[in-house]
Each structure stands twice: as C-alpha cells, then as structure tokens.
Design brief:
Blueprint lengths: L2 H9 L1 H9 L7 H9 L19 E10 L4 E11 L2 E8 L4 E2 L6 E2 L2 H16 L6 E6 L4 E5 L3 H20 L18 H4 L1 H8 L1 H6 L16 E5 L4 E6 L2 E6 L2 E7 L3 E7 L3 E2 L1 H9 L4 E4 L5 E5 L7 H12 L1 H26 L4 H14 L5 H17 L26 H24 L17 H7 L3 H14 L8 E4 L2 E4 L1 H15 L2 E3 L6 E3 H17 L12
Parallel strand pairs: 3-6, 8-12, 9-13, 12-14
Antiparallel strand pairs: 1-2, 2-3, 4-5, 6-7, 9-10, 10-11, 14-15, 16-17, 18-19
Length: 550
C-alpha cells in the first residue's frame, strides 16, 4: 500500500477507499497546488552505490518499500546534518494550531505519514533521527516527534486501512465535517447527498448549508462539434485542431475540452484520439442525420463493485420494478410540469397525469409500469402542440409523436434531442463505473444503452423537449433548416448548429435541487444522478431518487 493512501485513510476512510480500492482520483485546485509545492522534491537525486548520506548531503524523491510492513512510498527529502538524519515532507496547506498554546503543530495524518516513512527507512537500515513537515502556506517547517506512541498509532492505522480495503464496503460519508469542504473528491463522494440517499432523515439533519453545488470533473470544458465531412481533427502542440484541407479552422487547448462530437465522415488522427483518451475526454460519433452511433472513451475510473452490483440488482425483478417506477414517476411529473409552464392543456389532463404519476409508486411489475408510462406519454404528446406558440410555418404543426424516421420537423428535433441525451448519459454511466447496457426499465439488447435510456427518462421533458420548444418559440429555426426527404425529415448543417447552441444553453441553465437546495446546471445534475445510481448498485444507498422540478 502506498504511504499516501495511509495518509488518505487517517484524513478520511471514505477518501482512502475511493482512491485506493476504487482507484478514483479527482484533480482540483488543491491537488494542482500540491503538485506545484513538490516541483523541486519530485526531481529525484542521482542514484549512488549506497543510500547512506554524508554530512550536509541529501536525497530527493527517495523511493522506499518494505515487504514486512506492506508499504511503499517516496520520501520528499532525506537530509544528513550534524544532528543526524532528518526527513522532510512538503505540504501545500497550513499547519494546525494548538488549541491552548496557539503554536503550529503537524496535522495528524501528516504526522502518521512521516512515521510511516521513518519505519520504511528503518527497515532499509537508515534510521531517522528527526522529522518535519514544510507547509508551503506558512513557509516554515513544523517538527514531528518520532516516538513509540506515534509509531504504534501508525501501525494501528495501517491495520485499520487494510481491514477497510478487504471488506469492500465503502465507509459512510463524514457528516458536518469541515474536511469535506477542502477535499478534492467531494464531487465524487457527495457526502451530504449520500447521507440523504441512504436515509433522508439523516441527510436533512446533517446538511452542510454553506457548501456550493458539487462540480463534476471536467465540467468547465467546452464541447467541440465538427460536422463538415471534409474536415479532419488533429492534435498538435497541446491543442486539438480542426482542419479543412490545409487550413486550420479552429484551435482548442486540450485541457479546456470536455468532449468531441463528430458527424458523418469527419476524420480524426490517431494522435488526437490518444491525447483525448489519456485525459478521459470522450469522442462521440453521429451519423450525418444526427443519430448517435457510439463513442470512444478511456477506461472508467472504477467499476468492479458497481458493475457486479448492477448485474445482481438486474436479476432481482422486485428491485428492477422499484427503480423503474421511480424513473417513470419522475418523468411523468416533469412532463406535467413542462405542460403547466409552457402549454395550455385542459385541467382534466393535468389531473389525469398527476393520477398516473401517483399510481406509479404502487406498481410492482414492469409491464404495469410500462402501461402507465405509455398512457402518460399519449396524453403528453396529445397536448404537446399547446407549448409550440407563434409559429407561422405550417411545417411546424405537430400531430403526435412519430419516429424511425421522423416525418416532420418537431419530431426530427425530438429524435435528435433524445439521441444526444442518450449519448450524454451513456458517457457519464461509463465514466462513473456503470454498465450502460444493463438497464432496469428498458430491456437490454444488443447495441442498446438500456441504463442510459432509464436514467434519461426524467430528463427527457426538462432538457430535450424544452430545447425543442425553445427553438420553435424563439424562431431560431425555419423550414429551410430542415431536409425533407423520402427517408424522413432531418436537420441541415445550419439547423444542427442552431440546435447545438440551444442544447448547450439548456445544459448550462441552473436549476434548484429539490432535496439539497443548491442551484446547479442540468449538466451537473446528470452527473449527480449517475453517481447516485452508482451508489445504489454498490449497495451504499437502498434505492434511487429521481430528479423532479417544480
């Protein structure tokens, strides 16, 4: 076990489990600053025949390990002085203040880490006389007393960490703890949210009111969409470039990219694919008409526990029905809300939708849930046209849902939106460690991302349908932005550009979370819901809570 993981365990057992067992590591401003603080010590000293040091000499970035301790680590700095051998570890933050004297003292997890290094060096016949931590924010060293008590605590914590790893059960989140506010894994751990999902009474009682909404990794990046079939995507000098023949059309710093979407025959170089995959940036592929074909992505952060749990839950028909009815209940609720906000349906229709929604909660088999979902969808699309207002084009008349192929512009837009939403959630499910093809409401079959279709149900009206209504009502599209063919109606290149603008605008729209009160974008909400389902599959929380809005 790396010493840094023992350091994680003392700080927070849940953080240790996520990073050591699940292999999940999230970069944030603190981890980047920590890397900067180590920029000198990470430059390893030249290897000598003997690790023993002469007086006034030092080793930087010294790798040590011990089979008997089961530990491995890299010591930032080993110095040999007139007073003996000293080890120094570099930290980005500040030291802790003694509650009585106010003097600077080492944090507990930092002291344990130094004790572990001292034990490792002792095993290598390099006994340590002194130890200290350099806190970059204070610009000073804080001594750590290496005594038997500290060594005993180090071994005790090491044994505890191994037991937690062997149990393969993620420890519960911290509650009302300031450590969560400074943790890089907050957007993955979701302590307040996990507490609520596990037990709503506990979650509400221990809310962290001053915590901003969690940001999923890569949330600030841009999405590069390329649809010219003669274009080529290449990578050069840390940039993703879109080229047409010999001309460079656009340049995008790779660290600012969230995803790349390619339409039709757009070419992409091997170097660009490798650079994107190494940074966990997915590449989505669409047909010229906009149908989602598939994606290229790197290995998921984790997933063994969640995937095994997902397969076990799939075999339990009762649990499948429980999850399915919550997804559909949330979908029907949101359909009703969208009609109330943007349309003018008769009151009996709204009342019937509410009745169907409430009946979902009592269904125990998938067939009855599908029947209620179909009944609600028929009512919803029967009155969908009441949300489309002020269009002078008869081509935008809506007379019910049709697809494969869509036979009118609005159905074409709906199909495009559902296809892209399925792609978004397929990528998120894969990234968090779920199998996108094992669904609970939608029956798995070859090439069908059934789980993504399940998780997108509650977001169909809020994202895809809302984008369609917005595009028509704001007159951002005209009939000339569509191609009317014998094989169906599809967006033109210019129509797709308008669609993507509206799509990104909707994903960036902030909405208040119904349970936690903070505001977050729909893009972030998709990530939070996927991570909630990940916890259900791992057994951390008992059931899934769909997202609904008012």
């Amino acid at each position: 076990m790396p010493v840094r993981r023992l350091h994680n365990y003392v700080y927070c057992p849940r953080l240790f489990y996520l990073q050591w067992v699940e292999n999940i590591f999230v970069e944030d401003a603190n981890t980047v600053a920590g890397t900067h603080a180590h920029r000198n010590t990470d430059k390893a000293s030249p290897l000598k025949e003997s690790l023993d040091l002469e007086e006034r000499s030092q080793h930087r970035s010294l790798a040590v390990s011990s089979d008997s301790l089961g530990l491995t680590g890299v010591v930032d700095l080993v110095e040999s002085t007139a007073d003996g051998r000293e080890i120094v570890d570099y930290k980005n933050g500040s030291a802790r203040r003694h509650h009585e004297t106010g003097e600077r003292i080492a944090k507990d997890n930092d002291a344990i880490q130094l004790a572990a290094y001292a034990l490792l060096l002792g095993e290598a016949n390099l006994p340590v006389d002194r130890a200290s931590i350099y806190y970059a924010a204070d610009r000073s060293r804080v001594p750590v007393e290496l005594d038997d008590k500290l060594f005993a605590r180090c071994k005790e914590k090491l044994a505890e960490a191994r037991r937690v790893a062997d149990e393969t059960v993620c420890p519960p989140p911290l509650l009302d703890d300031a450590r969560c506010l400074h943790c890089s894994a907050y957007s993955v751990c979701l302590p307040k949210e996990s507490a609520f999902w596990g037990d709503p009474t506990v979650g509400q009682e221990h809310a962290i009111d001053d915590k901003v909404a969690p940001r999923p990794p890569g949330d600030e990046g841009e999405i590069v969409v390329v649809q010219n079939p003669r274009a080529k995507v290449a990578c050069r000098g840390g940039e993703i470039q879109v080229r047409l023949l010999k001309e460079v059309l656009t340049k995008h710093p790779i660290h600012q990219i969230q995803a790349v979407y390619l339409y039709g025959g757009v070419q992409i170089s091997t170097q660009a694919v490798q650079s994107l995959l190494s940074r966990h940036i997915p590449i989505g592929y669409f047909s010229p008409a906009g149908r989602f074909l598939g994606m290229t992505s790197g290995l998921p952060q984790s997933g063994v526990d969640a995937r095994l749990g997902q397969a076990r839950l799939f075999e339990n028909r009762k649990i499948r029905a429980t999850i399915a009815r919550e997804c559909i209940r949330a979908k029907i609720h949101n359909q009703r809300v969208l009609l109330m906000r943007n349309g003018s349906p008769p009151k009996p229709v709204l009342k019937e939708l509410a009745r169907i929604r409430d009946r979902c909660q009592h269904q125990t088999n998938l067939d009855s849930i599908r029947g209620l979902e179909g009944a609600a969808a028929a009512l919803y699309f029967e009155h969908f046209a009441t949300m489309v207002k002020g269009s002078e084009f008869e081509e935008f008349d809506f007379n019910g849902r049709n697809r494969r192929p869509p036979r009118d512009p609005i159905n074409s837009l709906l199909s495009q939106g559902y296809s892209i939403l399925a792609k978004e959630i397929t990528g998120m499910a894969h990234a968090v460690g779920l199998d996108p093809f094992i669904g609970f409401f939608h029956q798995p079959r070859y090439g069908r991302p059934a789980l993504a279709l399940d998780l997108m149900e509650e977001f169909r009206p809020l994202i895809a349908d809302s984008v369609v209504v917005s595009l028509i009502n704001r007159r951002e599209l005209e009939p000339k932005d569509f191609q009317f063919t014998a094989r169906g109606v599809f967006l033109s290149n210019n129509g797709r550009r308008q669609f993507w603008r509206a799509w990104f605008r909707r994903l960036d729209t902030e909405v208040k979370h119904p349970q936690f009160g903070y505001r977050m974008s729909y893009r972030r909400m998709l990530d939070v819901q996927a991570r909630q389902f990940w916890r259900v599959c791992r057994g951390d929380v008992p059931t899934y809570h769909g997202f609904t809005t008012r």
